[in-house]
Amino acid sequence: MPENLTNVAVFFFLSVGAVALFTFIAVAHWATQRREEREVQYRCELLKKLAEQPGEGARQVLDMLRAEEAKKEREHRQGLILGGLITFVVGVGVMLLLYGVEKSEPVWLVGLIPLLIGAVLFLYGVFSPRSEQPGAGTAPPSR
């Protein structure tokens, strides 16, 4: 096979692959957005019904919604901590690799970039203020 034809074949293969990849990403994002919109719509409908029919059942549902929000916040915080630790370790690895490759120049300092980013993510995940749940642990005013 001539080299020119091989280059053209590789170009078309990579072009089709890139188009397929970005099409998949777009469709996956669209599907995720649709699901999130439905969840928000169902939540709003539930809150409307709760507002129309207060009582013990409504209080239980509100407690469940608060627990879901607390779980989402906890998972987000854990994701920040894990991402920070991973980025920190990548920074250490880059520093060690670059120090082993080039000992005469301080290129290993480039590893400080991901190391410090990881440290900031970790510290933010650990020390950021937790949001207070409005009305959590208090009884609603009686009428």
Features:
single chain, 143 residues, mainly alpha, 2 domains, flat
- Strands, total number: 0
How many angstroms does the end-to-end distance come to?
A: 86 Å
Mean pLDDT, to the nearest integer, reads: 86
Low-confidence stretches: 135-143
Q: Portion of residues in helices?
A: over 70%
Q: Can you tell me the number of structural domains?
A: 2
Name the beta content range: under 5%
What's the helix-strand series? HHH
Sketch the major β-sheet. none
What's the shape? flat
**Rg to the nearest angstrom?**
26 Å
The chain-level structural class is mainly alpha
Describe the 3D structure.
This protein has 143 residues and is mainly α. The chain folds into two domains: 1-53; 67-129. The protein has helices spanning 3-52, 56-101, 112-127. Helix 2 packs antiparallel against helix 3. It is flat, with a radius of gyration of 26 Å.
